[in-house]
Amino acid sequence: MAFSVLGVFLGLLLEVSTHGPSSGPRTSWKHEDVNLVEFSEPGVFNYSTLLLSEERHVLYVGAREAIFELSMKDVSVRKNKVIWKVPETHMEKCIAKGKSKETECLNYIRVLQVLNKDSLYVCGTHAFQPQCDHLTLKDFKLQEKQEDGRGKCSFDPAQSFTTVMVDGDLYSGTAYNFLGSEPIISRYSLSQSLLRTEYSTSWLNEPSFVFADVIREGKNSADDEDDKIYYFFTEVSVEYEFYGKLLIPRIARVCKGDLGGQRTLQKKWTSFLKAKLVCSMPELNFVFNVVHDVFILKTPDWRETVIYGVFTSQWGNVGLSAVCAYNMSSVEEVFSKGKYMQKATVEQSHTKWVRYNGITPSPRPGACINNHNRLQNISNSLHLPDKTLQFVKDHPLLEDPVLPIGNGPRLITKDVNYTQIAVERVTALDNNVYDVIFTGTDKGVLHKSVVYEGEVHTVEEIQLLKNAEAIKTLLLSTQGARFLYAGSDSGVVQSPTAFCEKYPTCGDCTLARDPYCAWDPQTSACVNIFHNQDVTDLSRLIQSMTGDADRCPPARRSAPEEYQVMVVKPGSSAELPCPLLSNKAVALWRVNGSVLTDEASKFHLLSDTGLLIYSVGPEEQGVYECWSVERAAGKDFSSLVAGYRLRLPVKPRSPGHLPRSSSSSASTS
Amino acid sequence: MAFSVLGVFLGLLLEVSTHGPSSGPRTSWKHEDVNLVEFSEPGVFNYSTLLLSEERHVLYVGAREAIFELSMKDVSVRKNKVIWKVPETHMEKCIAKGKSKETECLNYIRVLQVLNKDSLYVCGTHAFQPQCDHLTLKDFKLQEKQEDGRGKCSFDPAQSFTTVMVDGDLYSGTAYNFLGSEPIISRYSLSQSLLRTEYSTSWLNEPSFVFADVIREGKNSADDEDDKIYYFFTEVSVEYEFYGKLLIPRIARVCKGDLGGQRTLQKKWTSFLKAKLVCSMPELNFVFNVVHDVFILKTPDWRETVIYGVFTSQWGNVGLSAVCAYNMSSVEEVFSKGKYMQKATVEQSHTKWVRYNGITPSPRPGACINNHNRLQNISNSLHLPDKTLQFVKDHPLLEDPVLPIGNGPRLITKDVNYTQIAVERVTALDNNVYDVIFTGTDKGVLHKSVVYEGEVHTVEEIQLLKNAEAIKTLLLSTQGARFLYAGSDSGVVQSPTAFCEKYPTCGDCTLARDPYCAWDPQTSACVNIFHNQDVTDLSRLIQSMTGDADRCPPARRSAPEEYQVMVVKPGSSAELPCPLLSNKAVALWRVNGSVLTDEASKFHLLSDTGLLIYSVGPEEQGVYECWSVERAAGKDFSSLVAGYRLRLPVKPRSPGHLPRSSSSSASTS
Lengths: 669, 669
Description:
The structure is a homodimer.
Chain A: H1 5-14, H2 16-19, E1 27-29, E2 37-39, E3 49-53, E4 58-62, E5 66-71, E6 78-83, H3 88-96, E7 109-116, E8 119-124, E9 131-136, E10 141-142, E11 147-148, E12 162-166, E13 169-175, E14 183-188, E15 195-196, E16 208-215, E17 228-236, E18 247-255, E19 273-276, E20 280-281, E21 286-287, E22 290-297, E23 306-312, E24 320-327, H4 328-337, E25 341-346, E26 350-355, H5 371-375, H6 386-394, E27 411-414, E28 418-427, E29 433-441, E30 445-452, E31 455-463, E32 473-477, E33 483-487, E34 492-496, H7 506-511, E35 517-520, E36 525-528, E37 564-567, E38 574-576, E39 586-591, E40 594-595, E41 603-605, E42 611-613, E43 622-632, E44 635-647
Parallel strand pairs in A: 1-31, 37-44
Antiparallel strand pairs in A: 2-34, 3-4, 4-5, 5-6, 7-8, 8-9, 9-10, 9-11, 12-13, 13-14, 14-15, 16-17, 17-18, 18-19, 20-21, 22-23, 23-24, 24-27, 25-26, 28-29, 29-30, 30-31, 32-33, 33-34, 35-36, 38-42, 39-40, 39-43, 41-42, 43-44
């Protein structure tokens, strides 16, 4: 009964995916199409903790009740293995507490960190009673000096968890209790007692931890600032309200040198601060408010470091995933200068969070100790005044948000739920630097996308895992032969970062717009420019990041006489296949030189670009050509995909009539 | 690098559609399949204002620059028409203000209400300068006593708008200014000056008006309470916060007898209150926060009245629509007893809305005048104390929400955006009462759904409009022959509310589970039980709301000898069609009596349930039967859809070999 401007509003929402930097993959590779190496052992599951040691050329894998050492160059080569089971008594206790014998009361290895040159630090859920141990690399044996894993590793193998080892100290984001209800961001070190977050919803409110890593200040820091450990998670918002819980993505940080407070915040972080990590399209009022994974593209100077995150929306009932990128310098700006939020009581009984407009104590609450503080005789956090400590205890949340580069997503993909991200910065032959974004989905698919000026191009999608299960971990090796390692519940998969050799022609090699690939006219092959052994002289290679294939030499074409002969009985049908490599190309059929424009009565274009000809008669005989036409750099590029010569069989009853073509060939029908 | 419990959370969200009361339509009718009557005139557009006069048996239609009187029984019969254009001078002014000559500076009829027995009250946008007039029914002419339409009709034809006429007074929800920025809920009456809402975001905050109607108190009201006018709209939330605007569905009401205040709220509503209209799935944290249309299923006692609304989610980038139902008694409970919300200033500079916990003035702010007030010498709103008026001016929002029946949606549909709703309460032959929900989509499709105990069944979908455009208005006639009337930009469509005659067998008639339809074994037809002329003795009819077709007499089956003969040349292919009526049925093929279980090499089941047989040979000859198998009431019901006898042609060269079957029939290939 009423018109609605909401119609317009919702119409806009429908355009989110088209409006944003979105694109489907150009090429789709099946699991068996590409050169993947897999590892799994019968009876072992949950290969979700991966640790790459590029010096030792190995990949460590933490799975359920087992730790593996695999060859980095070929993960199917197992170098070592150690079993770590739960003793019977432990398991019984776990079962008695109501947990499942088959799935929960086992030991899931979730911490795998390099402790020193000779050993790894490993922790497992150990039947809901987390334990840690040292693993000697020489003999690949556990030292069996088991330590309490509380606060270092999660109790529940299904609960979100993140960890990072920095200078021998283990930083974790996990739950501190059996029920999983007490979230904690902690530091465990040999020399000091556990440093942790305050147990308060202002500090952490039902967080789902996603990632943590250190950002080094660098040697030439003027103020001799401290290194920082950044945490990424999604939590329930305290500052916003709605009916139902509102989730919010966060970036939090602590300082490496934090020792806790003297009286206030004893054995607690004095440097814990957090901010909102925005990934939204303000012009469409669309918010991606769940962060699933983060990758930090580190640079020698931290100011140039870029943080990449994959997001979905809390309400996105059908997959719409986004990738947002953040400059570390904007992050630093927010943490070092941002306004704080404050919990205020309204009308005696309501709690609301608002901007704090009062005077901020000095030193700035939550800031790391620097030379300026040291001049004031504050050489570590124990010397911080109570006023500063009390303030940061009550105001861990900053009001200023961390905004993405360009104020919106770099990439939006429809009908996909991204779970993992890895990014590699490569220099193409045009000497420009490109960030190549690898994203893993909950269905075992990998997307490879490149951000060009104002445009995203998804080079390819690869069915990385045999089954449609989630990619749980995604690692990238960047030295030597580049590989991606994906961990899932059922195994580990190793994949090259590019499939240049799969492009048969210069046109395909160029249209792929893959910064790893270029056409070598000398060998007539699409080669990986980072595999130095393949080509010594890069200058002869043909590459165009716009996909402009004009520089390609003309393709060698077989003469129509060499086309495959199809002998078809009169009245029956013939199917001429035309497999296109690119999802962005369209098939164009020429019959005896003329373009097949409309669906003539006897022709039917198949959905997979093949041509079906019904009840073939003498007039259907002739030369059939299928061309792939693809648009790039404002031009159409076409190439011959398949050619056929269709003819009726030689009639044995009338030997006087010979077919015009005398070449004989295999016949198909 | 991190596990995620959010994965689980989002997994749940993916289940919203399966979790809730959701179902696809059993039958799909195309536009040309069913008996629809259409009306449109060349050059006339936007047939979006419909008014049904069941006494006069006519449907009034307000379109762009024209008003029509159509026959209710056959809308293709135009009884009258009047043109109402904008004078040249008006149009020029409108164009000078920057509006479009082709679309905006025209007269869109948006108000069409019965004023009295002899005339209608009509208003149009009149080139962004709304005008109203009286339409004499006798000669169907405008009286040309044009009145200012400001506050009664919208300026902008594209802006949301609702109106209702109650006892000669026009109640509107619209914008009061040219820019459309000043929302207003107003009453225009001949005897009094315009009564309106305060211009304040606490009262109305960017509302999209959806529907308005009166709920009569009834004669036997103990307190002699006033009649109420309810408004439904979506607006931008003031009480909740997020980044980006949060929309919220509202129900608001005013009292019919309101005269405004004496000093405070002079010429403003003293009875305007609003509450949140919740349609959500709390267990999945999923909120449908945009209301698109409302239908009030009125009953003699208002306490039994049920309000139906169609909702989507603000973030639902792919359509997920829900229908929620509300008891009028719960609405009354919220408005008469609910807590108020209050705007509070926090830390000097922030405004937050919280529950008001103080003492509420008496009489209750926003309540209608009743006998209790009259005893206190408050006989109308002019006598209300300033304290009460000031309170309602500052506290128009109630904290308590109006919750749906069953605390969640009645119906959830995927991949659909519902725009309109109409509901009819019918008594089936089992003497139970069923609410039949008709929902119109933005693609011109109508869904007909019935709510059974704990289960929703969508009987059918109908492509009501020829083109995939939005259904803008949906009206239901309930007297005599029941019809639905849908208005769209391009015309008016009249549709029966049931298509019983389209079900050819008792099985189909029963499996449809349509409360309008029953099988008449005497005439072997599926009949509409509300068309009394069809059947006099209802007791002989077969109807089962569970879809149990066991009571059906055995279907008359043609003998295999009567099946259609298909003569197929050896080596060529044959396609045997099997059109299933029901989307919930599966096709089962029997070849010479045996079920075709797997896809044997030469058989290929087509997606539309037909069977394709490749290169037919002598062994493929025989009897082919296609059965429709559908599950209902815990049982499988099967019926023969098509039967064929496949044979090779009689070979003219070997007259000794005759085909086994000697019956000759039309041959198809």
